[in-house]
Every structure is written in C-alpha cells, then in structure tokens.
Design a protein that fits this description.
Elements: E1 9-13, H1 16-19, H2 27-33, H3 49-63, E2 67-71, H4 74-77, H5 86-101, E3 105-111, H6 117-121, H7 130-145, E4 151-156, H8 158-167, H9 179-203, E5 208-213, E6 216-219, H10 229-244, E7 250-253, E8 257-261, E9 264-266, H11 294-305, E10 311-316, H12 323-342, E11 347-352, E12 372-374, E13 381-383, H13 385-396
Parallel strand pairs: 1-2, 1-11, 2-3, 3-4, 4-5, 5-7, 6-8, 7-10, 10-11
Antiparallel strand pairs: 8-9, 12-13
The structure holds beta-D-glucopyranose.
Length: about 400
C-alpha cells in the first residue's frame, strides 16, 4: 500500500449545533423542546465546543492531524433577518485563527441542517426567498471570514434535508410522506448552492463545494429501483453532481451501503425515529451495516458523475461502543481512499466523523461516533485509542501494515 499524497488532509468533521452547545436561536433547539417530536433529549450544552474550541484544536494538533471541518451557525451570525452579529463573526474568526496557529486547515460548513428560528417561521427551505437569503448570508460571512478559510462547504447533505424534514418527519418542520415538498426543498437548495457558492467565491478566493450524503446503493439481480427514501436521496445527489461539475471540489460523505433485492430494501438499515437498536458485530449503534468498502464505490461514483471534480471525503465514520471496531473501519475506509488515488482519482483529504462523541440529532447522545469521549458532566475529553492511531496515520501519511 502506498502513501497518501503530500498535502493530504487528515482530520475530523463536526457541525456547529452538534458540538457548540446553547444554540437557542436555531430551529433545532425549538424542535428538541417541542412536544411530539422523535427527539430523545435536547442538545443542551452539547460538548461546549463554543468555549472549549482552543483545547480541542490543540488536542487535534498534538495528535498529529492537519485539518478540521467545522460548522458555523447561521442562527448566531444572523439572529434576526438582516441583522448580522459582529460578535459572532469575531468568535468564529478566533476559532479559525486558532486552527491556523495549530496547523489545521479550516474547512468551513456554512449550513449543516439548522436554520435560524426566524427563517423556519417563514417556511424554511420552502420559503421562496430562501436562496436569496442564503446567498446574502454566504456573502457577508465570506467577507468576514474568507481570508482564514481553506475550503468552504455551502450546504451539508442537501439530500437529507428534504428526507428528514418532509419524508421521515425526524427534522423540522416534521412533515411525513410529503414527496412533493421534498422535491421543492431540493429545487430551492440547488438554487441556494449555486448562488451561495458564487457569493463566497466573489468575496474570497476559497475553493467551494457542496458535501453530499452518498450511501453506496447496491442492486442485486432482479431488483428494480423504487421510491425508498435513500433512492430518492440518490436522485437528489445526481442533480447536485451536475452542479458540482463547476465547483472546486465535491464532498463525499459515506457511512454504509444500502442493498436492494427483488422484494425491495434488504439488510440492516437505520430506523430513524424508532430509537437505537442493539449493536452487533455486523452493525453499528445506528443499525447501519458495517461496510467501509462503500467509500471506494461512492468516491468512484462522485468522480464519474462530476466529470473529475476533486474530492474531499468530508465525512466517514462509525457509531460504535467498541473502539477497535472503529480503528478497523477507518483503516478499511482509508484503504479505499488509497486505492482510488492509485486509480488516478484526485482525493485531497479524509475527515473522520467525528472528533468528539456528540449530539446525534433526534437520537441524542446515545450513539458514540467520536475518537474522543466527552464526560457529559464535566466536558472532560478522553481520547480513545483510535484518536492516537489516526494521528499516527496522519504523521506517517500511511496506514500501518495489515
Ligand atoms: C451528518 C451528521 C451526522 C452523521 C452521523 C451525517 O449524515 O452530516 O450531522 O451526525 O451523519 O450520522
């Protein structure tokens, strides 16, 4: 097995809402506290990353990592329509400066699932001025922070926004089975990405792209494509791949595969809103099949569908209580990256989801994706063996021999 290319980014990924804590002005905070939603617990103080970012960034640098994908929170930056917070921009500048000082390339996600409450009240992703408002938020933010950003991600997993909020009802606004709504959300998000990315590039010379939810869909003989939510998502991904032809990179986010036989979906899958299943040797705490090989297939698909747009693996991860299982998952996923690179595909980085055990949306704090455990009473960080293992891989720019 060869080495990873020089300059390859080794790091972790997170969103603002899942780690910062106290995100009271966002629609998710309201959703977590509303009666009748599937949320098992509120996000509360999360990992208090909002105040502890300095320690976490120093920890990553000590481990040997060189990149952090982090989210910024629209609800903090624009707390009411048209009112931009200088203090919020200053805060995020301090976070990005800290990344730079510690040799971490800051990869910044402008939108990761949450909306300011005022925007959700107007209709959220269905609001007819959504794309225009996103464009303005991107322009103002890139003007304030762009000089410090290494890569900009406009919208995280646009596929999941229609699915979670309109088909499954596990995200705000909590609609179920509204396929028409899902398609209207997708149309607005395509427009928002196009306009947001252009606004960012106009303000700062930052490579910009979208990060896509790409499970590996596998059809067995006799299976015919249908309307399963992950299949609808794949059609949304295809539309974004078209736009990504003109982008500077595309973010590939893959956790597992989804198999389809003649009778439809088969094999393990996540039952959002149904609580957590029992983790087994073959499945994760979310009920996903442990299948790190999926990443090679989705990297190839992204490369093909975009006609050769450079790739960043912006999320790859496993929810498990067993850290040795995490190490073997990441090892196998990173071997897929190396094989893709050897096949001539430009993959620029691998970002593990996630540094910390954090808030897994409606499933709360039960699933543990982190390479670092977080004490929920004291916020103390406890690196797991995988954190040290991953740091060594980054330092060596190579995986250990099998
Ligand atoms: C999302 C994250 C989430 C992770 C693990 C991704 O789809 O971007 O917010 O925590 O998967 O389920």
């Amino acid at each position: 097995m060869g080495a990873f290319p020089e300059g390859f980014l080794f790091g972790t990924a997170q969103s603002a809402h899942q780690v910062e804590g106290g995100n009271v002005n966002s629609d998710w905070w309201a959703w977590e506290h509303a009666a009748g939603t599937p949320c098992v617990e509120p996000s509360g103080d999360a990992c208090d990353f909002y105040h502890r970012y300095g320690d976490d960034i120093a920890l990553m640098a000590d481990l040997g990592l060189n990149a952090l994908r982090l989210g910024i929170e629209w609800a903090r930056i624009e707390p009411e329509e048209g009112e931009f917070s200088r203090a919020a921009f200053d805060h995020y500048r301090r976070v990005l400066v800290s990344c730079r000082e510690h040799g971490l390339a800051p990869i910044v996600t402008f939108h990761h699932f949450t909306l300011p409450r005022w925007l959700q009240a107007k209709g959220g992703f269905l609001f007819d001025r959504f794309a225009a408002l996103f464009e303005r938020y991107c322009r103002r933010t890139a003007a304030a922070l762009g000089d410090l950003i290494a890569y900009a991600c406009t919208i995280n997993e646009p596929e999941g926004l229609g699915e979670g909020g309109f088909v499954l009802g596990v995200n705000p606004p909590g609609r179920k089975g509204d396929i028409d709504g899902m398609w209207r959300v997708a149309a607005n998000l395509l427009e928002a990405h196009r306009r947001g990315a252009a606004a960012i590039r106009a303000e700062a010379p930052v490579p910009t792209g979208v990060t896509l939810a790409l499970p590996d869909l596998q059809y067995e003989d006799g299976a015919t494509p249908g309307e399963h939510p992950v299949e609808l998502n794949a059609r949304v991904s295809d539309q974004f791949f078209e736009l990504a032809r003109d982008d500077d990179f595309v973010g590939v986010q893959t956790y597992t595969r989804n198999r389809f036989g003649p009778e439809g979906a088969r094999g393990p899958h996540v039952d959002w809103g149904q609580g957590l299943p029992q983790e087994t040797a073959e499945t994760t705490q979310l009920g996903q099949e442990v299948y790190p090989q999926a990443l090679g297939n989705t990297i190839r698909r992204a490369w093909q569908r975009t006609g050769g747009t450079p790739i960043l693996v912006t999320e790859s991860g496993i929810a498990t209580a067993f850290d040795e299982k995490r190490i073997s998952y990441v090892d196998a996923a990173m071997r897929e990256v190396l094989a893709s690179v050897a096949a001539g595909i430009e993959v620029r980085g691998y970002l593990y989801w996630s540094l910390l055990d954090n808030f897994e949306w409606s499933l709360g704090y039960g699933p543990t994706f982190g390479m670092v455990a977080v004490d929920r009473q004291t916020f103390a960080r406890h690196p797991k063996p995988s954190a040290h293992w991953f740091g060594e891989v980054a330092r060596a720019r190579a995986l250990p021999a099998l």
